[in-house]
Specification:
Shape: elongated
Distance between the termini: 94 Å
Strand content: under 5%
Structural class: mainly alpha
Low-confidence stretches: 4-31
Number of helices: 6
Length: 176
């Protein structure tokens, strides 16, 4: 009888532990709000686009500054993409691995340009893209529900702002 009582207590304790583990999993899943998943997806798309645009800038830029900016874009955004991919894996988010058609179309349109025409169009696109992505990251930093994504957005913002400032300077200097 004593053994049966102990066995029942062990079963009850085990059930409580499993229930607590399931509750922790459920709270982690519920902490990943749709807005956080949307941010992660949009940030991944933008990051993929910047890596591809960086390669394009290196290959087609006529200015040394444009080529160097392209190298910086590829390196920095590849690093950020890797960090985001790691966070997504921890939070069961599947990120896109290809560019959305609108971003691919911008890339393809730039591929048709050359010389200073390419340099100006490329840098103008970098300015526009970084303004949009900074707004996206600022919104996540302020309103995101997932602390890991908020922290990543906060940590990434200074680099994005630096990219924008650098792009604006290069663009302004192209006409001189």
């Amino acid at each position: 009888m004593k053994h049966l009582f102990l066995a029942v207590l062990v079963c009850i304790a085990s059930t409580g532990t499993l229930s607590a583990q399931n509750n922790n999993r459920n709270s982690m899943d519920s902490s990943m709000k749709a807005s956080d998943k949307k941010f992660a997806t949009e940030a991944a798309e933008a990051g993929l686009a910047e890596v591809e645009m960086g390669k394009l800038g290196q290959n087609q830029g006529s200015s040394a500054k444009v080529k160097e900016y392209g190298r910086m874009m590829e390196k920095d955004h590849r690093k950020a993409n890797d960090e985001l991919q790691e966070l997504a894996g921890k939070n069961n988010i599947t990120l896109p691995s290809t560019l959305p058609s609108a971003m691919q179309n911008k890339h393809d349109a730039l591929m048709k340009k050359s010389g200073q025409d390419f340099d100006r169009a490329f840098m103008k696109q970098m300015i526009e893209d970084h303004k949009k992505v900074i707004t996206l990251f600022e919104n996540e930093e302020k309103n995101g529900q997932n602390e890991q994504l908020r922290t990543w957005a906060r940590k990434t913002l200074p680099t994005l702002r630096q990219h924008l400032e650098h792009a604006q300077k290069i663009y302004d200097d192209l006409d001189k």
